[in-house]
Each structure stands twice: as C-alpha cells, then as structure tokens.
Amino acid sequence: MFFLNPARILFLTTLTLGALLAASSTSWLTAWFGLELNLLSFIPLIASTSNIYSSESALKYFLIQALGSALILASAPGILLLKNLTLTPIILALLIKMGAAPFHFWFPSVMQGIQWNQALILMTIQKMAPLFVLTYALSSGSMMPYFIVKMSSILSSIVGSLGGLNQTLLRKIMAYSSINHLAWMLAALSFQKSLLTHYFAVYVIVVASVTFIFMSYQIFHFNQMFQIDNSNTLVKVGLFSTLFSMGGLPPFLGFIPKLMVVQGLALTGQTLWLAFLLLTAVVTLIFYVRLLLMGMVLTAVKPRPTLTKKDYLPLLILTALNLTPLIAPLSIFMPF
Questions:
Q1: Cα–Cα distance, 14 to 41 (Å, whole number)
Q2: Which residue in 135, 323, 334, 146 sits closest to 245, CA to CA?
C-alpha cells in the first residue's frame, strides 16, 4: 500500500504541515517556507526509480515549482518599496504553482505520469497553500491583483472545459476538471475567503470519491470504464453520484458551493465572469456523462473481481457524503 511505507508517512506529514504553514502564515517569509517544505516533501512521493514516467513527472513538477519560488524570491526585496507593483509577479508565481491558466501546461502531463493516490494529493493538498496565500495578495486593495485573478479564472474555466473534451486518458480528464474547478475557487477567493474554504472542502470530498472508484478498479483509460462491476448497485450509485456531484448538478453535494459562488458573483455585478463559469460548467458535463455512460452501459466479458466488504466502506462513506443534499434537503439552505 502507498501510505504504509514509513518514509512516505513522514513525507506526507511534512507535506501537510508545509501546506498548513503556508495557508496560515502571517508573513511572506513564513509562507515561502511552507511552500518549499510542501514542495520538497511531494517530490519523494512521486519519484520512482522503477517507473520512468513518474520520474519525469517529478522532474517537471520540481522545475515548475522552482520557477514559482524563484519569482517569489526575486519579488520579495521590492515589497517594502513598490508593494503594488511587486505583488504582480508574486501572484503570477502562485498561479504557476497551482496550475491555473495560462500557466496550466505542466499540470496534465504531470498528472499522467503518477498514480491515482499521488494524483489525489496533487489535485487537493498541493493546491491549498498557493490558493490561501493568494488571498493575502488580494487584500492589498489594489485592482491589479484582482484583475489578474479574474482573467486567470476565466481562462481556467475555458481551458478546463474544452481541454477535457478530446481526452481519453482519465488522469488528464481529471486534470482538466481540476483546472475548471480552480476557476471557481479563484472566483470564490476574489470576494470571500470563507467561501473558498468551504468550496475547497467540498471539492476534496468529491475528488476523493471519484479517485477512489478509479483507484479501486485500476482504471486509467476511457475504454477501461467497462471494468467497473456493473452488477453491483453500490458501485453504480457511487459512480453516478460522484460524477454528477463533480459536475455541480443539483441536488448533489458539488452543487452547493457552486450555487454560493453564483450568488456571490451575481450580487457583486460580475455577470460576464459568471457567464463564462456557467457556460464552461455545462461543457464539462459532457465528458462526465461520457464516463458515466461507459461505466453504466458497457460490461466486460470477463468482469474483474468485485471489491471486498472492507473496500466498500470508504466508497459507502464518500457516496453518502455526495448524497447529503438528498438525505437532508434542508442542508442546501444552511449558510456556510
């Protein structure tokens, strides 16, 4: 198992501590230290001497993150003199680190070379630190950081939706889906930090539930979706709820934070920004439905062994979380 290795447990602990340190820091120096600790802890988790693709992904990830860190260090001396001017390269560096458009080119290729458990960390924990550090840059009161985040959010929504249409590799589809969700997160942090926290928490639950299904059946390609046990009702419900929840369809869990972002953008008058997010969210549903049809309709001639009862427990819990609005409809109207 991936997490039973003592060295990996150590690196995973320092990785989480680095992300939390950067997200909760009160100075740029502490934030940079947390980002570096997070980076240096993730490299050993994805590097492997027996797999050339994971080693290539580790090298790509290190070079991109080192570029972002170099931009932060180069801009740091000028913060006291020209604060608003030097915030621009820092914001660009944070966008590079999280894989937001137009700096997204490294993200799908790195995702393709790693395993599902490592991809889950890359899509969740590795985005947390740059996102929350970015909120400090937006608190300066200048319009330039806000404009950069807005443009990056619009570009990320377009790239994340259109980029996943012609993909047949599931890790790249999840990568472009993550870029599209990142557009919603950037929109959330632009006007309310607490909404970003709740959107990110729901996003982690939804992505973990989808990744668990793919990891349980070791599915990496679009044509392998038929390997899912089509005779098991639990897996069917899990696949159905997780994909539609990731697409943000009501009344699944993923719909709630998107509804709050829509409400926030509408109240602030950002109708054009909101239009891009909504239109591209509809486009992402196309490849979610394609995956769902492949998993629900087609069946293998020799189906793979079904999961054990022990393996069903996490799937049952994550599926139940995605169905929370159905189980408790009043939770949709509860304030976050």
A1: 6
A2: 323
CA distances from 108 to 14, 49, 78, 183, 228 (A): 25, 21, 33, 16, 24
pLDDT score at 53: 85
Nearest to 284 by CA among 246, 254, 250, 255: 246
Question: From residue 240, how far is each of 101, 160, 243, 286, 323 by CA, in Å?
Answer: 29, 21, 6, 14, 10
Q: Does 230 have pLDDT greater than 90? A: no
Q: According to the model, what pLDDT value does residue 336 have?
A: 44
Q: What is the pLDDT of residue 258?
A: 93
Question: What is the number of other CB atoms lying within 10 angstroms of the CB of residue 70?
Answer: 11
- Take residue 65 and report the two structure tokens written for it: 């993150």
Which tokens in the block code for residue 270? 């950002």
Q: Are 45 and 18 spatial neighbours (Cβ–Cβ below 8 Å)?
A: no
What single-letter amino acid sits at 15? L
Among candidates 17, 67, 58, 284, which has minimal Cα distance to 167?
Answer: 284
